[in-house]
Design brief:
Layout lengths: L3 E6 L9 E7 L17 H4 L3 H9 L8 E5 L8 E8 L6 H17 L4 E5 L8 H12 L18 E6 L5 H25 L7 H15 L2 E5 L1 H7 L2 H7 L7 E7 L7 E12 L19 H16 L4 E11 L11 E2 L7 E2 L7 H13 L5 E6 L3 H7 L4 E5 L2 H14 L3 E3 L17 E2 L7 H10 L8 E5 L22 H13 L1
Parallel strand pairs: 1-6, 2-4, 2-5, 5-6, 9-10, 9-13, 12-16, 13-17, 14-15
Antiparallel strand pairs: 3-4, 7-8, 8-10, 11-12, 14-17
This protein binds ligand BES, manganese (II) ion and zinc ion (ZN).
Ligand BES binds next to helix 11.
Length: 501
């Protein structure tokens, strides 16, 4: 459920709620000449001087990432006051405000609050959209399958954001945009968190259909028969070892006069057992998240459908379950592809790049101005970058600059990795056009090089090797560091960039 968010010209100290969370810029220490309005005004007096005392004790100066909590003992109309530092006003950026919003919502959840009051300084007011995104992302919990005592005692329902001046129409628009964007990211997280017995390829297709229906998008789902007819042999190979058959999902948004055409492709392995090259038991359960790339695409399309940019956007998902059985594809197999080239199968656990190869070959026919794929593709990338950062590759510098700028604007941790040409030799096959895995070293890079073989003449391509399966904060909150849904904000930023261009 989205939060009920109200923006009001009000002083936080006078508001009532279960928790009040106030953000401040670095405190000036009383040396200021003209006294500016602060969302903290009135609190110290109401609390009988306890707040300033507490600041001194904790050495709280309003620096970034500093925070203090204090019980109000009934002296204001909320049980608890939390003050968070934002650092210097001039250095404040959207991502800082988003992380603050998330902190406030997570604090509210910790306090079992239903009603939250948020106070922000003037410097944060332009970032209302980011604040709302943070609130919604931080409030997120995945509690669908817990019952009885395990259910959360309270759920954050409403947030009052206190600002200096009476909010105008732009503020309302920013709140709406923030909620739409966060709903997309949280949908991605929900899909990723669903267990694999519930979310199999066709169920993912149904989820995409429901999103399309809600927002007036087009959605075509190619079933197993269509996949075979079209010659998507790699998607067939990966998916045929499961009772749950694969599908290809194609969602699209076409505005009247689109400025550009962007395509986002996602790996939708609803469960990755490794296939015949079966994975060890430890951590296999995490492989329910192996459709996080697909979840990001569906979540992004939900946001696109709600926000209706003047850019044509396609979301394409290759969905399959990678299982071992009598019909499963094998190491040593040689398969064709939608591209036409033959691929020698080395390890059936490198299934992601195979389904993506067909999805990319399908996407390139649509003639995108920018093609972005995202996938929980390699353990190697996570070994290199950890669980809070995704790796990415671009096929030229101009595209790389554009992607780097988008990632920077959202604050998502995305680290560029190199397409090292010298590793290409690893993909040479004795019996087919190409093999799909290389040696042990450079595993994320050789996967990216393999994918690049299937983009045809697309001029601008980015591949993201995302860390979905092992992010620590899968079912709870959001703190700006990774977590499922990582990348969606950056992808939307690319769409906005295309609209501005
Ligand atoms: N889905 C995995 C990659 C993965 C594993 C991501 C663990 C995050 C956490 C992928 O399908 C896979 O199994 N990749 C193999 C490739 C190898 C066989 C060349 C890997 O990374 O080990
Ligand atoms: Mn695998
Ligand atoms: Zn996988």
């Amino acid at each position: 459920m989205p939060l009920k968010i109200t923006v009001r010209s009000a002083q936080p100290v006078k508001e009532s709620g279960d928790v009040i969370v106030v953000a401040v810029n670095t405190l000036s220490g009383g040396s200021k000449k003209k006294k500016e309005r602060s969302p903290l005004d009135g609190f110290d007096r109401a609390l009988g001087g306890a707040l300033v005392k507490r600041f001194r004790k904790d050495d709280f100066k309003g620096k970034k990432d500093q925070s203090v909590g204090i019980s109000t003992l009934g002296k204001v109309k909320a049980d608890r006051l939390i003050v968070c530092g934002l650092g210097d006003a001039d250095a404040l950026r959207g991502p800082d405000v988003r992380v603050f919003g998330a902190k406030a919502a997570r604090a509210a959840n910790t306090e079992k609050a239903k009603r939250l009051v948020v106070g922000i300084p003037a410097s944060a007011e332009p970032f209302m959209r980011e604040l709302v995104e943070g609130l919604e992302l931080g409030a997120y919990r995945f509690t669908k399958y817990v019952t009885g005592d395990r259910r959360p005692k309270a759920e954050l329902a409403s947030v009052t954001i206190c600002v200096a001046d009476k909010p105008d129409a732009t503020v309302k628009a920013r709140v709406d945009a923030g909620q739409a964007m966060a709903a997309g990211v949280n949908l991605a997280r929900d899909l990723s968190n669903e267990p694999p017995n519930v979310l199999y390829p066709e169920a993912l297709g149904e989820a995409a259909r429901a999103v399309a229906k809600e927002h007036g998008l087009k959605c075509v789902v190619l079933d197993f028969k269509k996949i075979q007819e079209k010659g998507m042999k790699l998607l067939q190979a990966v998916g045929q070892g499961s009772d749950r058959k694969p599908c290809l999902i194609h969602m699209s948004w076409t505005p009247p006069k689109p400025k550009k055409k962007l395509i986002f492709v996602g790996k939708g392995i609803t469960f990755d057992s490794g296939g015949l090259s079966i994975k060890p038991a430890a951590g296999m359960g995490d492989m329910k998240h192996d459709m996080s790339g697909a979840a990001n695409v569906v979540g992004l399309m939900a946001a696109i459908g709600a926000l209706k940019p003047d850019v044509e956007v396609h979301g394409i998902v290759a969905a399959a379950e990678n299982m071992p059985d009598g019909g499963a594809y094998r190491p040593g197999d040689v398969w064709g592809s939608l591209d036409g080239r033959s691929v020698e199968i080395i390890n059936t656990d490198a299934e992601g790049r195979l389904v993506l190869a067909d999805a990319l070959a399908y996407a390139r026919e649509l003639g995108p101005d920018l093609l972005v794929d995202n996938a929980t593709l390699t353990g190697a990338c996570m070994v290199g970058l950890g669980t809070t950062c995704s790796g990415w590759y671009a096929n030229n510098e101009e595209t790389a600059e554009m992607f780097a700028a988008a990632a920077k604007a959202t604050g998502e941790n995305m680290w560029r990795l190199p397409l090292l040409e010298e590793l290409k030799d690893q993909l040479k096959s004795d019996c087919a056009d190409i093999k799909h895995t290389g040696d042990r070293y450079g595993g994320s890079i050789t996967a990216a090089l393999f994918l690049r073989e299937f983009i045809g003449s697309v001029g601008a391509w980015v591949h993201c090797d995302i860390a979905g399966p092992s992010t620590s904060d899968r079912a709870r909150g959001w703190d700006g560091k990774g977590a499922t849904g990582h990348g969606v904000l950056t992808f939307y930023e690319l769409v906005e960039g295309a609209s501005r261009a």
